[in-house]
Write a structure and sequence with these properties.
Layout: H1 7-21, H2 31-37, H3 42-54, E1 58-61, E2 65-68, E3 89-95, H4 100-116, E4 119-125, H5 130-141, E5 146-148, H6 157-166, E6 171-172, H7 193-208, E7 213-219, H8 225-240, E8 246-250, H9 255-264, E9 271-275, H10 278-290, E10 299-304, H11 308-311, E11 318-321, H12 324-338, E12 353-356, H13 368-373, E13 378-381, H14 382-385
Parallel strand pairs: 3-4, 3-5, 5-6, 7-8, 7-9, 9-10, 10-11, 12-13
Antiparallel strand pairs: 1-2, 11-12
Helix pairs in contact: 1-3, 1-4, 2-3, 4-12, 7-8, 9-10
Length: 386
């Protein structure tokens, strides 16, 4: 009779799975975050990490963190790392130039796979042309019954469509592509609606914080369906409330953002800014800082995606956080369903979580009345997160 695994061995197995799904050089979460995730103390996590350090899979850099140095061999001698059933083996096709959001989805896919009893085989691509077909075939040859795409750039939706149509095995995707509703992990009917009402509510929340003017800042990727819906929500809000439309789509780099900040400095003290993501919010904070303006005294600002950079910005950034466990569970469950010629869109659609930090001016002002007024948003104070 085999002995029951000790807690640190279970944690080691999960982290080993995680290292398979992240690119070499990726930083893994701090020990305290892993301890919360795996419901143990940091000493158990440290003991679990030691074996991976000894094998050279991860490396510690003093003052910087812990990073993936190499990937565990797929044919590891320990039977724990061999799929017990080929039907439970899922391929993960990772776009190499992903962002912080993509890495969070990957981290959670590793954890969800352990909970669902699935084995993962991962490979990396730089695009969705011939290279992706070869990698998909390699995953299929390795026994994978389906593929998960954790993330892909919006402008590559057309290439992703062609890839899915020609893939040797079914593909589960994180974004809705017209005509491929079955491949999308969530409920296609809720894709747009889950963005419109919450983003209108965020505009209202900024107004509640005393912002007489509400602006929107996003990228110039007009084909992005998330951006389209956020812009629609913003436009509806300013139209319904008869306030100026201050929406701008900015190019990468600092010059365009600096010009916008200079233009908006006349609104200091009455401006609220809703941003497409944390990256654009942090760029705006930097641009405002250059002209001597600081949030939340001179303006309020909200980001999206809850990046680490936003947590430690000055001031800490209020942001919309995603339920990454919901996303990862949904991607994997739908991948399995596709192998049976059906779909699984049963993952819940939780309320967007507004992680309230300093940049919006809402700390100390979140109460039952506010929660009731903006009931399509789940307000979470900073102290509840850490």
């Amino acid at each position: 009779m085999s002995r029951k695994q000790l807690k640190f061995e279970q944690v080691e197995k999960e982290i080993r799975q995680l290292t398979r799904t992240l690119p070499i050089g990726s930083k893994i979460p701090p020990e305290r975050h892993l301890a919360v995730t795996y419901e143990c103390n940091f000493l158990t996590v440290r003991k679990a990490l030691k074996a991976l350090v000894d094998e050279g899979i991860i490396t510690r850099r003093i003052g910087s963190g812990t990073f993936i140095a190499k990937h565990p061999e797929a044919n590891h001698q320990n039977s724990d790392f061999q799929p017990k059933k080929i039907a439970n083996q899922i391929g993960v096709l990772v776009f190499r130039n992903g962002n912080a959001y993509a890495n969070k989805v990957l981290q959670n896919i590793a954890h969800s796979a352990m909970e669902l009893g699935l084995e993962l085989r991962s490979t990396w691509i730089t695009g969705f042309g011939e290279e992706s077909f070869k990698q998909a075939q390699a995953l299929a040859n390795d026994g994978c019954v389906a593929i998960v795409l954790p993330w892909f750039p919006h402008h590559m939706a057309g290439e992703v469509r062609k890839f899915i149509e020609q893939s040797p095995i079914p593909v589960s995707i994180p974004l809705l592509i017209s005509g491929l509703e079955a491949n999308y992990f969530g409920d296609p009917e809720l894709f747009g609606r889950n963005l419109l009402k919450p983003n209108k509510a965020l505009c209202g929340y900024l107004k509640e914080m005393g912002c007489q003017k509400v602006a929107f800042v996003g990228p110039t990727t007009s084909e992005d369906p998330i951006l389209q819906r956020m812009l629609t929500a913003y436009t509806l809000y300013v139209s319904e409330n008869d306030i100026p439309n201050l929406s701008v789509l900015v190019e990468p780099g600092s010059q365009h953002m600096d010009r916008i900040a200079e233009k908006w400095k006349t609104y200091a003290g009455e401006l609220g800014i809703l941003c497409y993501d944390d990256e654009h919010a942090l760029r705006m904070i930097t641009a405002m800082h250059k002209i001597g303006l600081k949030a939340p005294t001179d303006y309020s600002i909200i980001g999206r995606n809850d990046t680490e950079a936003g947590r430690f910005s000055d001031p800490p950034l209020t942001t919309i956080g995603h339920d990454f466990r919901n996303i990862s569970n949904g991607l994997l469950r739908n991948a399995l369903a596709l192998t049976r010629n059906t779909t699984d869109h049963t993952e819940s659609s939780p309320l967007p979580k507004l992680l309230v930090r300093e940049s919006c001016g809402g700390l100390g002002r979140i109460n039952d009345e506010l929660r009731k007024k903006f009931s399509v948003i789940d307000f979470i104070k900073d102290i509840e997160i850490y």
